[in-house]
Amino acid sequence: MLPVRVAPVAGEAIDSWLEALARSLDLSLGQLFGLLGISKRRQHALVRRPTPAEIAILVEGTGVPAPVLLAMTLSRYNGIATELDDNTGLVNRSFPFAERAGSRYCPECLVETAGRWQLQWRLGWSFVCVRHRCFLIDICPDCARRARKEPTPLRCAVPSRCPCGADLASSRVMTLPESHAIVAAQQVILDVIEHNRAAFGVYATSGYQQSARETLRDVMKLANRALSYASIYGFRAVKFADLATVASARDSTVTGPVRQRRTRNAKPPLWAFDTAVGVTAAVEILQAPNLKEAGVRARWLVEGQSIERGPGELRSCFGDESIAAAIVINAHAPNMLAIGQLRWRTALLQPRAPDRRKEGLRRMAASLPAMLWPPWLARFPSVAGMRSSKLSILLPAATLLVGAITRPSDVCECLGGFLSGIGLGQSLVVLGETPQWPAISAAASRLNEYLDEHPAPIDYDRRRQLKYATLLTWSSWQTLSRDLGMAATTEEEWAAARCYLIEKVSGSPTAKEDLVGYGLRPRDLRGIVRDFPRVMTAQLARRLDGEARAFLRHKGINEPLSWHPPLDLVAGLGLSAQDPAAIDIDLMHRLATDRKMTVTKLANRLGAEPPVIRYLFEQHPMAADTRSRLPKPLLRRHRDPQVLTEIDRLLRDLDEATLRDLYSSQGLPVKVIAERYATNGVQLSKLRKRYAIPNRDRTGGPTGPRRPRER
Ligand SMILES: [Zn+2]
Ligand SMILES: [Zn+2]
Fold first, then answer.
1. pTM score of the predicted model
2. Of 12, 273, 595, 625, which has the fewest beta carbons less than 10 angstroms from its beta carbon?
3. Which residues have CB atoms below 5 A from the ion given as ligand 2?
4. Distance from Cα 170 to the centre of ligand 2, integer Å
5. Ligand sitting nearest the alpha carbon of 126
6. At which of 585, 602, 635 does a domain end?
7. Residue 363: predicted pLDDT
8. Cβ-count burial 668-701 (b if 16+ within 10 Å, e if not)
């Protein structure tokens, strides 16, 4: 044990304390090291992290407990405000603003403590003395050397003296006014480091509290942007640093740093002053109550500069999911078109750069129908100049665009190509300018996030690929309508029911090829399909679902018939002008018995959007005895060259294999087959010729060749 004990000063660095110890013993530092048995070359390394053996020697020799000794070394900040390599003990340069040789200093503190040096001055994060409200000094005013960068000369006895002889304790300081933003920012940084946690400003919202390391990285990124900005426009243009009050003190406040800094440059700025300006701007932005507001506070970084090259550029946000990146994206959001806002997820609480490539797009597209789920569509507001049918295919595409890095045409293709890439872009421009856009884009973004984590139990991609020719054939429709006592069902009703069912199962608009062949113009047919839920009774709905389930089973698909994500996802977004629950169902049913009351007319009458009415009819179908019929004008046949002839219809409903089986193999009488397919023998014979199925009378049917008449 050494004969004299010197207690460390609060916050003192271990090298400073060892020097004080040497002085009290009237020894040179070299002699003290020799006495303790520690290598003189370890002088610098001791400040970073002493070895366990060195700690043991120091405890033994000085009586200072090990934890106190370690707290005087940079290892106390390891992983918090700096990072030391496990093997070499050197400072990790990738840690934000960590690598800094030597020590800054506050002359007034040196005077007060008779030359004891604070450990904290060695951090790249220290730029002012919060006690004396002055900038820390970077270099000796006389020789411009960084203080304590070189090992202390072993015989130097005066602690505040530079090797050049200048007394650092008498350096001139630049003092800041009371409660200046720069001092406040330094205090925020010191608090984050002390508690290893940030809970101020944007971090206060639950879920965003984070460690010092992550927080300092955010500060670093924003500070770098602010300094790049200053390199173009000068320090005084930097918001929040309030340099007008200190400008007279230094010329550089006008000019700014010479070079731009890359956003993720972890090297600390050379000067305390630069660090102060950058960090203060960053802290003031981060002190906003939320990320949206922080984006507003960071607008100056984005305004009046090249988006690609300037300090506020978006490029560096790729692959960066930090709070800082989210803020920069938010700052850019007002400049983005609707499509950009979706890609950059600006409607989310924490936006991030687009990252979903084609593969990810396909995966998510499997969870999305090409037409928005009816219960969802019923929640969306109408958009002036846009039909709800258009909106219903636009919204899934918008949802898929969220976070997508690919072209809009890829998005459309993944959803079955019901929209073109150009069409999607144009519609989004229109949609982006409507007052409903913020709510709509928020809904699309939330839906995207949800489906990313909870894929749909239905593979909509497969549903889009299915062939629906065998779903609800004319014969099954006839059986079904007979069972339900639907007298005199028409082909139009069948067409409507069939297309309705195809849309329900596939989640897509009926394809063009499924619309022809019913004797109706496709446009009119789409109209009656849209009106179909109104004329569908509860029993019919059940039977149709049964048909659809049997169809899926037959295809080997074991999925629910239909599904939709929970509606609370979009609750609170202020989406719907009309709450479906507010509509009087009885009144709707009463009005609907008039066959002229189409869904659209009902919607006008009840003050709701057509999708709401359709959805309500699906939820509350008409009772069988009050069933309405499709409106007359739509039932008018529009005969044109495309119109289906009986043979066309048969070609569709009775395929070759089936007819061969019924006619040739089973040998059913023509009359029975004709009845089953609601046709007559002449038509069947025509069909047989089309399929080149030979007449069984000549070749011999299943009953065997006709026996020669017995003579
Ligand atoms: Zn001080
Ligand atoms: Zn000097």
1. 0.82
2. 625
3. 140, 142-143, 162, 164, 166
4. 12
5. 1
6. 635
7. 96
8. eebeebbeebbbeeebbebbbeebeeeebeeeeb
